[in-house]
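To whoever is on call:

I kicked off a structure prediction for a single chain this morning and the downstream step that reads the tokens threw a length-mismatch warning. I double-checked the sequence; it's 338 residues and nothing unusual in it as far as I can see. Pasting both halves so you can look.
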Amino acid sequence: MHRRGEGEAMNGRRPQAPYVLATVVLAIALATIAGASRVAAQQAEGLEPEALAQIEALANEKAARTPAERKLDSQVLYASRMAQGEAIAAGIQTLDVELPDVNAQGAVLDIRVEVSQPVLDQFVALDAEILEVNEEYNHVRVRIDLSQVEALAAIPQVSFVQPKQQAITSGADLPAAAMLDPESARATRDRKLVERAETLASIQRALQVEGALPNVGSQNSQGDPKHQANTARAIFGADGTGVRIGVLSDGVTNLAASQGLGDLGPVTVLPGQAGSGDEGTAMLEIIHDLAPGAELYFATGFASIASFADNIRALRDVGCDIIVDDIGYFVETPFQDG
């Protein structure tokens, strides 16, 4: 505890707080730098000379990049160089690079750019296939040959070029490799759909024997009693009536099956935004259990970062009072280019 007189200088006056604070911050910074240097030295002692040389070569390569190359995500730049048979850096011919969508026609890339028709014409002149354009968010998605990406980045209006960004839901349990490998991801999704269909069939058979449970469909969310929403409905008579709730997730593939089981009532799916998968269906079921009187809306958040943002606005425009999502993009861009 601080008492009167503690911390006073020899001349009887307290030191000035800003100077004390600055001294403490400087001391912490110096200690941090010294500690980091010690850790780096300790780590370097355990590395082979070849590995240290590769690290130095990559650092030198990054420092020597041209203005256009600095606009390229390193994965894209390295993939481009390898596709053209060029060294990535001095003494390094290849590295493991992960691009999520590449075929014989090229790689799918997301570009942050000042969108205009002349700029799009320049993309086409580089044989780029334009897949998506969103002028409001300075976003263009293209498929382009990897040999053309440096020319793409050299266009003045282009700010950043990165691999195609893909979303996952909060409930996803895919391994990291499957998130990057479209074939593995599709196989996992297909397996999940089969498992869900088997579960639905089992529930339907049970319902034929036992009959439906009143008010909650085939089963009720454990979150309903956990949050005491059931008690709140009984005491206050509030069940969400008059409230519109929008949901963003992967998709609502088995929406009709859920409605058939009584787990969901009417849901307005925005045109063309049903998506694929059933994390969205599950979210809607939970919300319906807690607020059975609410009007429910859905739109997918999986097409791209820009379309995700568009669908937030679209749900707002149809009058949603509450919008929830479980979407995550590994590279989101509130504070950086890309």
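Update from on-call: the warning came from a stale cache, not from the record. Cleared it. Sanity check on the structure: The two ends are 49 Å apart (CA to CA).
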